[in-house]
Amino acid sequence: MPYNGKITTSIDPENLWKVHKFLQNVKIENADFATVLKNAKKDDFIFIDSPYAPLSSTSFDAYTNTGFNLDDHIRLANLFKQLDQKGCKILLTNHNTPLINELYKNYKIEVIPVKRMVNSVGSNRKGEEVTITNY
C-alpha cells in the first residue's frame, strides 16, 4: 500500500505495451561508453547522459568504483569528436562548468537553468546544466 494510503495506477498498460513492442529490436548494454559506441554509424542519434563534471572538490562523482575523473571526461570528448566525424547526431548533457565548455567549445552549447532538489539549502538549489549538440 502506498504511503498516503491511496491506491493509484501510475502505469498506463496500453503505453507499456507500446514500449514493449518498440523495444523488441533494441539492444541495451552495460559497458564502458567507448565499447558501447564503437559500432555507431552515420546518421545514428546518440544521447549521452554521462556522469556530470564536478561543480566543486566535494561534488559526488562515485558513479563507478573508480569514479568518473578528468581523464574519462577527456576520453568522452574525444569520442564525441570521432562520432561527429562519422556523421552521427549527438546530444550530450552535463553541468555548465569551465571544463565542459572547454572540452566541447567547437559544438553548440545551450545553457539551461535547473533546480537541484538534493540540496538542503533552498538558495543553493539553482544551477545550470548544458546541452551540447553537433547539429
UniProtKB/TrEMBL annotation:
Q: Does the keyword Methyltransferase apply?
A: yes
Transferase listed as a keyword: yes
Q: Which domain of life is it from?
A: Bacteria
InterPro entries hit by this protein? MeTrfase_D12 (IPR012327), SAM-dependent_MTases_sf (IPR029063)
Question: Molecular function (GO) terms listed?
Answer: S-adenosyl-L-methionine binding; sequence-specific DNA binding; site-specific DNA-methyltransferase (adenine-specific) activity
One GO biological process term is: mismatch repair
List UniProt keywords, sorted A-Z.
Answer: Methyltransferase, S-adenosyl-L-methionine, Transferase
For this entry, the protein name equals Methyl-directed repair DNA adenine methylase
Which species expresses this protein natively?
Mycoplasmopsis gallinarum
